[in-house]
Specification:
Helices cover 70% and strands 1% of the residues. The protein has helices at 21-32, 34-37, 40-61, 78-84, 87-119, 125-137, 140-150, 157-164, 179-204, 209-216, 221-249, 253-258, 270-280, 284-314; strands at 63-64, 73-74.
Length: 315
């Protein structure tokens, strides 16, 4: 008599069907590494979009090319040597550092002060915040045109205000000594709201216990700010300063529209100098080398501020 083989028990009705071992293993891998797998497609697209222009810029920095049908000519380190001996290049770096230091310094000071003000409760606070953020929303080129008219020495409103309080007529963007501070004023007017928003978010996230302890100890507003608020807020301020530093180093639109690097080269920053070399004089190889220097400058600033923030977190 033939032996009857027992069939495997059927799962109860309504229960999920058993999955093959290979599929279970795949699901386990997806479960374990989902934080890497899910953003991978977007990351690949972003890296591909960044890799080509950066790689091509580095490639052109070792060549000389003036456009047209003739292929780029390899020149090795000639563009690097030329940049190191180019007085106008070093001047553009100095003007970039001057502009960035002045504008970002003003933005951090005013932005922190505005954040402390808007953190307090007062009638119309929401409307005041909205008006304060308007400059950040405007188109930079349009803002630059408006400010260029305001800087006009004869019909500009800024000279009218200065003269109304007994001051002299200022040339603003026509004076080599005033043009960088004038451009820093425009940049500060536009981007201080961004610093304010970042610091305001940091203020909202601060713990209340240190402030209550300071109040119990009888500390006044200034003492509380110096001893409690500022140390707790310093990592957030560094992040805001880093964002603005990187963006200010690359500032192009307002300088191009308002002064185009003038008078002479008094406001010609590194970004504008690279633009002129590449697209105005058709020295694409040398212009690419200048952009490599600009990228290195941004990279160094980012590393320095990242380490400063790490130290403040540890402290």
């Amino acid at each position: 008599m033939a032996q009857l083989t027992e069939s495997p028990p059927r799962p109860p009705r309504g229960a999920p069907a058993p999955q093959p071992a290979r599929r279970r293993k795949l699901l386990d891998v997806l479960d374990r590494y989902d934080r890497y797998i899910l953003p991978a497609p977007a990351l690949i697209v972003v890296v591909a979009m960044l890799a080509f222009p950066i790689g091509y810029t580095i490639y052109l920095s070792f060549h000389e090319w003036s456009g047209g049908l003739r292929p780029p000519e390899f020149v090795g380190l000639d563009n690097l040597t030329r940049s190191l001996t180019d007085g106008q290049f070093w001047g553009s770096i100095w003007r970039t550092v001057y502009f960035v230091t002045l504008s970002v310094g003003l933005q951090v000071v005013i932005g922190v002060g505005a954040a402390l003000l808007f953190h307090q409760r007062f009638p119309g606070r929401g409307m005041a915040r909205t008006f304060f953020m308007f400059p950040m929303i405007a188109t930079p080129a349009a803002v630059a045109l408006v400010w260029k008219m305001m800087f006009d020495p004869t019909i500009g409103i800024l000279n009218y205000i200065v003269q109304s309080v007994g001051g002299p007529t200022l040339l603003w963007i026509s004076d080599a000594n005033l043009v960088i501070p004038a451009l820093a004023i425009v940049d500060t007017w536009m981007w201080t709201p961004l610093v304010m928003l970042i610091v305001l978010a940091g203020l909202a996230a601060l713990p209340q216990e240190p402030f209550e302890a300071a109040k119990v100890d009888g500390a006044g507003p200034i003492r509380t700010f110096v001893s409690v608020t500022l140390p707790l807020l310093s990592p957030v301020i560094l992040v805001a300063a880093l964002f603005r530093l990187i963006d200010a180093i690359k500032t192009f639109d307002i300088i191009k529209v308002i002064t185009d690097g003038g008078p002479g080269t008094a406001s010609e920053t590194l970004n504008l100098y690279a633009f002129k070399q590449g697209l105005s004089y058709l020295h694409f190889g040398y212009g690419s080398m200048l952009l490599v220097w600009l990228t290195l400058l941004v990279f160094v600033v980012a590393i320095v501020f990242t380490r400063l923030r790490a130290r403040t977190d540890q402290g």
